Amino acid sequence: MIKTLSFILLVLLSLYSIISFIRAQERFINVKYSIKTLIGTGAGIFNLDGLTGLATNINSPIGVFYEESSGDLNFSHTLNNTCVCKDGFYGLDCSLPICLKAENGKCANDTTGVTVENIETSQLSNKSISLSSGNLTESSVVSVSFPSDFSHYISNQTTFSSVSLLTAVSTSGNNLTNSNSAFSIVSNIITISLALTNGKKIPVSNLENPIQISFQKPTSYSGNLTCMYLDELTNEWKSDGVKTVIEPLTVNCLTSHLTSFSVIDINLRKEIGKPKESPSVSNQTISQSQLSQEAIIAISVSIAGSFIVCCVVAIILSAVICLIRRKSKK
Fold this sequence. Notes:
Helices cover 29% and strands 29% of the residues. By secondary structure, it is of the alpha+beta class. It has a domain at 99-273: Chondroitinase Ac, Chain A, domain 3 (Sandwich). One of its GO terms (cellular component) is membrane.
């Protein structure tokens, strides 16, 4: 009897030790009881029951790091705790969808790829980048140059030591029309944004030294080119806060903020937006004038004709009456 009780107690103690060890490992590995692990060339999330697996957006992870705030084990592609994400995602664990507004407020990544570069804030000053989409020629490359004090500006906006630089280039297509104007876009549309690794957008506005965006000068235009930006709140193209500098081969846009930019043919904008007298109105006026003259003539002719007919009828009646009276007298 004593041996049996001792055996049962030993078994219970062993089970308790195993359960305690497992729970300790769970808390040490992940406070959320999930582990991100490698599956082929991607990644997945598995619950403790071993049944549920969700695909993630990381490409080819080779490094592992522990995220204290969430308790996740992250597999990264590089050695600086960042991930190489699939198209359309960014962030520390590639869980943030990208949406850079371009034409008519639509996401730029709907029609073209978005480039995401994780960069130290100290490396932003004097940084230059060249952008193009896959279907563009070398002559359509757009270059961007940040000012010398840009790192200092971003450091004042956030305490993060690194940020995500998001850029996209899309073709302009046909003329864009908004609520009050029509525009002829003669360049590609470039969209630039800065964000933290947690997805929060870094506001960039009122820069003392502007960011320069250089577009290739179009081969044909009406003669008055201007740089404009897309106001994301109203979905309208505006030019305030953007300076245009035209050189023999390029159109340089100097801006104190970041959003979507393009070169507009302002002459064509005036031609399209200029109110014109409706041809139908003038034609209608002429038609009414002509109609009035014709109506007067027609009425006059009708009256004259009616008068003549009445006279003829009166003459005939008078003649008939006279004949009848003569016959009566005889």
